Amino acid sequence: MIENEAVVIRVEQQHAWVKIRPHTPCGSCDPETGCKTVAMTRLFRGDKQEFCVSNPLDAQPGDLVRVAVADGVLLKSAMLGYGLPLVGLLVGAAIGQLAYAQVLGDFSALLGAVLGCAAAMLFLKTGRKNLMAEPVIVFRQEPGLPMLSSCKNKSTIR
Prior knowledge:
The protein is an alpha+beta fold.
């Protein structure tokens, strides 16, 4: 499981909106910038900092929680996010070239590629919830106790 600490912002039925807590360097990462993966995430995340997660522990706004995602979900989402548009682009270009090459020339391949990629992106945008495992709150911090760090290597650093 991939885990990260978060703060619950609001609750809606069986789901909670959480804001991921900033990660601090633990000593096994680069001491100045911390985890390289987190740095890349900060670079590309945009303004969206709240995420909807499953809330089986009935966490309330203001609670410190630990959110987890199954191990294979990150790889699967990367493969779908990059692979499906690429396949749509190639298949669309091939179909466009085969079907309309005599009418539109090379423009048919370009048009097919754009339409194929757009169809794949639309599919990812609308059907992604069914394809991915939903992040879930696996731990709710009791008030007054310090949150345990999610960095597994912290205990080995002296």
